[in-house]
Amino acid sequence: MRAHSSTQQSPKTSDKKVVIIGLDGVPYSLLKHYTELKAMPHLHEIVSAGNLLPMNSSLPEVSSVAWTSFMTGKNPAEHGVFGFMEIDRNTYEYIFPNFLSLKAQTFWEVLGLPTVAVNIPQTYPAKPFNGIMVSGFVAIDFQKAVYPKRVYEYLKSIDYRLDVQSELALKDPEAFFKSMFYTFEKRTEALKHIYRNDEWRIFIGTITETDRLHHFFFDSARGGKYHDVFIRFYQMLDDFLWEMFQASQKDNALFLTCSDHGFTTIQTEVYANRYLIEQGMLTLSGKNDLCGITSDSYAFCLDPARIYIHLKDRYARGRVDIGEYNSLREKIKYLFESLRYEGKRTVQKVYFKEDIFSGGYFDDAPDLYILAEPGFDMKSSVKKESIFGHSHFRGAHTYHDAHLFISDDVTGDITSDLTIEKIAPIVTKYLST
Amino acid sequence: MEQHEKDTLLKLHIDQKVEKAKSVIREAIGKFGIKKIAIAMTGGKDSTANLSIFKQVCDEMKVNLPVCIFIDEGDVFDEIREFVDYIKHLWSLEIVYLKNTDVLSQVTNIGDAIPVNFLNEINQAALREIDFSESLLTFLPDSTVCNHLMKTIPLREFITSNHIHAVSTAIRWDEQTARKDEDFFSERTDPFHTRIHPILHFRERDIWIAIFKYDIPFNSLYKLGYRSLGARCATSKLSDIPAWMQDLENTAERVGRGQEKEQIMGQLRALGYM
Question: Are A59 and A371 in contact (CB under 8 A)?
Fold first, then answer.
């Protein structure tokens, strides 16, 4: 590994700065591919000045959980975010955890350093703190998504967009691409402006347009109908990364890019609740959603593949006695491990909660977590009539194949088995020594 | 109307309040005639109370009840449909159901987005009218934009094609500040018609007193704790206590109606969740 510059002096602890560009859903393997293809010439150069590593996501491998693990350096049972939604144990209605329900401190709150945090998923609504925050997905009200107010006024003045209009992807791909490029242009404009005009020691800006493009069109990432859009977009991303990298080098800052999960092309969607229904594990009455879970149900799934046992002492209509808990989990584990699609395994591994979660919010963790084989997109939808199906989505998240790039050799001995949780300790150590 | 007049009306005994409502209705019938009036019904407590007083007046005058209109904004509680059906048979009502079929035919879920250029010209014009310039319309019943498309537009069409001169609704002064300047008869433009507000001077408490005193039917959702009913997605309850047993005077009636949750679901669905 090469040091990023032999002529630069290491900054003093009190001056150290970190710049992190989050690239939502950008796989290690795709960056390798694009740098080899010379589609990202600048990244090729950036990477030669540091270390590009494959990294694992969090479990569940969705943005809300993974970015929260990134921000806190904790596992979900410590930070309390297990997915985009939870279910009320009495009414079975959806609950949506947001930034206010986060149970752990972010690494920048722990360090107490002035920080810019733009567009990190699961940071809505923005809270007042020592810095600038622009919330990422799911952000609803623009004003509530920005702290402080002067930054809101600025963002409004440049027509900043919180997110791409993903709803367009199905009906009108061209309009979707237009929205994606526009959102990216405004996002990067805002990031560069804030970088230059504000005081910070930690600068985090996340690009989520990548994830949106991948969800709907990942089958074009390496060729295909919309490949030219991919190349055009990744070249713009390459230019942006180059600008940020150069600026960070001028400021003598540590430069990182990372993604929260990988992506692969979908082979099939897998509807876990439908499978549970067909196996007699789940019955729904009347309404076509989880509100209709009956007292005959043993288990249910929340996105993407969190299985909850319908325990008597946990849910209003629960039926499972604690004595049956372990044998039921074994049974469900077996059911999913043996679920095949066209002869192929669909599930890589089924975890029990104690295998992967530990912390004060362990009780809220799913009782089982199913890690699907890459390309098998597990979903909780209950409206499906068969276990497997296809929709307009073309990309599925992967646990493996996220990436981390660091411009300097500061990863120490934790480069093996690297997960997104490890970034916060790396950055914290760098900034405090 | 002067504030002191309003205060006097608000302080009346329930029987006197009903008498005042009846005199407003009699005046309306005298002025417009039964055939030129329509009564809005939502299946909620206020509109049912209003309708019940209307019925009493019509029975006394030995005339038929005016036509009733029910507007389907695209996300109606099953309990509301059932209740409206029940009232319809109980009181032999003539009900016209209004809805915006162009919008409804293009959505499957709340939170779905419709490209504006997929809508028909009437709806596109309706959006321009309220300065809506986005290329996508998010289907969120009870939001300002959707209320305009789903309620105002079908109602407007109904009023025009049936030559209706007056529409009775069950708004009340104490519901929300936007209604505190209303009068028993208020004129509306586009299209020109008069709104009749017979129970404007009832407080939330009065509605419940009237319901129990005069044995007016009410929707079972109130028993579950709902205080105010709107589109299903925009209505929630903050208590499991029946509405009439809650602290009506010190808590807000319409707080259980919000949209942020539906917007979150819409965004998550667009990315394949839920």
Answer: yes
